[in-house]
Amino acid sequence: MSIWPLTAEPALSVGGSGLAEIAERFGTPAYVLDEEHVRARCREYAKAMAPHEVAYAAKAFWCRAMARWIAEEGLSLDVCSEGELVVAGAAGFPAARILLHGNGKTLNELSAALDYGVGRVVVDSVSEVVQLAALASQRQKVLVRVTPGIDAHVHRAVTTGTEDQKFGLSIASGAAADLACRIRRLPSLELAGVHCHLGSQITSLDSFTEAARRLVAFMAGLGGLPELNLGGGHAVPYRPGDQGLDIAAFAGQVTGVVEQECAAHGIPVPRLTIEPGRAIAGPAGVTLYRVLTVKRGTRTFVVVDGGMSDNPRPALYGSRYHVERAGTPAPAATEPVTVVGRHCEAGDVIVPDARLPADIRPGDLLAVPCTGAYHHAMASNYNHLARPPVIAVRDGRARPLIRRETDEDMLRRDVG
Ligand SMILES: Cc1ncc(COP(=O)(O)O)c(C=O)c1O
């Protein structure tokens, strides 16, 4: 699995557009997104999982163009806020294919989801069920989010399948079964299935097959249900040599285990849903930075014109990235450097252990691959830096999907 987008000539071009030309035209920092890569991954996922369902997790990267691509490629959609739902609505995303998530949904969110007619609401607490049942004027399908008690051995901040955390209801304690029975007694709700999400950047198929076993056993206790949603979390490579999750292997093993377990428990095989976000959008993106300064001392710091405001993941999770000088063929001699941002924090490091050409200098362009997911989505205005644009590339054409934020945009909110 490559760390670069499908159509990339690494560090030179993506989607037939030169990275140097994109930087010149749109400025830096900038996120570049390969439309063909996104679409190809959607098709690969849909084919591997057919006839089951693939729902793109909007939290990874979301805008109207993305919504249209996902809809056109036939995927369903996982949203986890009213804001994500608003974007889906603005793009005319088919309501029946939408699932609403969230461990703390507001009343407005629930009402908006019902008004839009979302296919399923993934419920996460007793109080939410009570509220939803009261608000629903027509029968609403729901899935119960459960915690199967599985540690997928990923960063603690993105571990969500274990017992002791804020998402879902515990199978082991009986809370999940109690909520399922309660839903069945509510005439405005229809218990359609169960959901779990183990975490993110998971490389092991065993975690998913074990989750499938436990969830099928749980569903059997309820006499079987039509839907089983195993969430997202499929790993992608960020650096050369990193392991990604193979969707064909995943589909083969997980569907096989579900069929076997259902046969063993004597229940019908449910329709499966999976919710990849990162695996669709992550490797489709490349971030471009301009080098501002190079400081040589005991260590060489390469300071770029972005940082933790456009990529908080190294500071949040210790995530590791690859970086290359873009737009020029790399010379043979490289030196070890630390690529840092320009924010007022010592932890504002993009790549602590990079190797860049020894003649790296201010004005050079750098490309950081695998930045299509959880980058623009998690970007902030820290130090009042404007958020970078997202530039889609395809067939030699580059166009902004999201324009660069301006000082005016930020001042507009400053109403005091
Ligand atoms: C419920 C749910 N589904 C899907 C995802 C997508 O995860 P990933 O982007 O790692 O595939 C997440 C991520 O947090 C999630 O919480």
How would you describe the overall organization of this protein?
- It is a single chain.
- With 416 residues, this protein is an alpha/beta fold.
- Helix content is 29%, strand content 24%.
- It has twelve helices and 20 strands.
- It has helices spanning 19-26, 35-49, 64-72, 82-90, 107-116, 126-135, 175-184, 205-221, 247-265, 278-281, 313-317, 407-412, and strands at 13-14, 17-18, 30-34, 53-57, 76-79, 98-100, 120-123, 140-147, 169-170, 189-195, 227-229, 271-274, 285-296, 300-304, 324-325, 334-340, 349-357, 365-369, 390-394, 397-402.
- The N and C termini lie far apart (50 Å).
- Bound molecules: pyridoxal-5'-phosphate.
Q: What oligomerization state is this entry in?
A: single chain
User: What small molecules are bound in this structure?
Assistant: pyridoxal-5'-phosphate
Number of helices: 12
- Count of beta strands: 20
Mean pLDDT score: 96
Main sheet summary: 9 strands, mixed
Brief overview, please?
With 416 residues, the protein is α/β, with parallel strands linked by helices.
Structure characteristics:
416 residues, alpha/beta, nine-stranded mixed sheet
Describe the secondary structure blueprint for this structure.
Elements: E1 13-14, E2 17-18, H1 19-26, E3 30-34, H2 35-49, E4 53-57, H3 64-72, E5 76-79, H4 82-90, E6 98-100, H5 107-116, E7 120-123, H6 126-135, E8 140-147, E9 169-170, H7 175-184, E10 189-195, H8 205-221, E11 227-229, H9 247-265, E12 271-274, H10 278-281, E13 285-296, E14 300-304, H11 313-317, E15 324-325, E16 334-340, E17 349-357, E18 365-369, E19 390-394, E20 397-402, H12 407-412
Helix pairs in contact: 2-9, 8-9
The chain binds pyridoxal-5'-phosphate (PLP).
Pyridoxal-5'-phosphate (PLP) binds at residues 57, 59-60, 78, 101, 197, 200, 231-234, 275-279, 373.
